Amino acid sequence: MSTTKTITLNNLREEYEREVTAPVAHQEVKIELSLFERLYNISALRKGFILVLLAVIWQIYAVNLNNELMFPTFSDTIKGLGQVIQSGELVNRTLTSLKVLSIAYTSGILLAGTLTVIAITTRIGTDLLETLTAMFNPLPAIALLPLALLWFGLGNPSIIFVIIHAVTWPIALNIYSGFMGVSNTLRMVGKNYELTGLRFVFKILIPAAFAHILTGLKVGWAFSWRTLIAAELVFGVSSGSGGLGWFIFEKKNQLDINLVFAGLLTIIIIGVVVENVIFKFIEKRTVIKWGMKF
Which domain holds residue 256? Predict the structure, then answer.
């Protein structure tokens, strides 16, 4: 005996036709930002806020410590800074340091660039650069101060020597790393245009590796700046005058601790300006403009 079961479907969806309409034109959606969001998006204001916050912490800590010989207040430091700027003493010392630094930093860049170009074009140059960086890059520049004093005497030549040592190897390593990271496609483009030697380096390798080169320049700048101050603290006086490091050393001996902090603050200000103005300008005009960094 068979049983027949009937299934009724009452919820079938009715068929219909939909007319195809023209696509809606793309429209930008604008969202009005609040005043806080607009200000927060400005990098200079964010960094300025951090600096102000650090200055407030400095002032509060120094007031609570209440020991000017150990840690002067931020206000006393600014007052002392204004006095030595007005007298011209700090300005002259700063210009002396920057003059020495510019000579040594430029020389270090040229030496690093020369070694790297030789390394990238010849096998013996590669071995030479790898050997020299393995030998001298771990060697602290401050360790060469006694030898520099014996070889070049007391004064700027000794300082320039140790700064060149501090600058050359990190810059050379970054440039070489950037050159080695250039894609084969760009290298083949250079070969198709029959670029060889220095033309290939300047027209293909340097633009392609400029992000690494700029990083090396930043690292080299930091090394050179702190090596300069350390060297001047040790023997940075020549013919009765010295740079920022010697200024700090003198004021420490005279127990003008607020002026010691004024010298340190000057070093910090110069470092911040170089990093956020000069290098930032170069970065915007090169790697960001070329789409290598956002």
Answer: 84-285
Sequence-distant (6+) residues with CB within 8 A of 78 are 262
- Sign for the CA dihedral angle at 46, 50, 52, 56 comes to positive
The total number of structural domains that make up the chain: 1
* Angle between helix 257-273 and 74-87 (nearest 10): 80
Count CB-CB contacts under 10 A for residue 58.
Answer: 18
Q: Report the distance separating Cα 212 and Cα 199, nearest Å.
A: 19
Dihedral angle at the C-alpha atoms of 90, 276, 222, 176, nearest 10 degrees? -150
Considering only CA atoms, which of 103, 98, 141 is closest in space to residue 269?
A: 98
Name the nearest CA neighbour of 174 among 229, 221, 140: 221
Reported as a single tens digit per residue, the pLDDT across 93-124 is 889 889 989 999 999 999 999 999 898 888 89
Domain presence at residue 11: no
Domain contains 43: no
220 in a structural domain: yes
Q: What is the pLDDT of residues 201-247, one digit of tens each?
A: 888 888 888 888 899 899 999 899 888 888 888 765 554 567 888 88
Sequence letter at residue 282? I
pTM of the model: 0.78
How far is residue 156 from each of residues 20, 101, 220, 252, measured CA to CA in Å? 81, 10, 19, 22
What are the tokens at 49?
């806020």
Q: Tell me, what CATH number does 98's domain have?
A: 1.10.3720.10
C-alpha–C-alpha distance, residues 210 and 205, integer Å: 8
Cβ neighbours of residue 89 closer than 8 Å, sequence gap 6 or more: 247
Tell me how far apart the alpha carbons of residues 126 and 159 are, in angstroms, rounded to a whole number.
29
Partners of 47 in beta bridges: none
> Could you tell me if 123 and 136 are in contact, meaning their C-beta atoms sit under 8 angstroms apart?
no
User: Residues 215, 216, 217, 219: what is their CA dihedral angle, to the nearest 10 degrees?
Assistant: 90
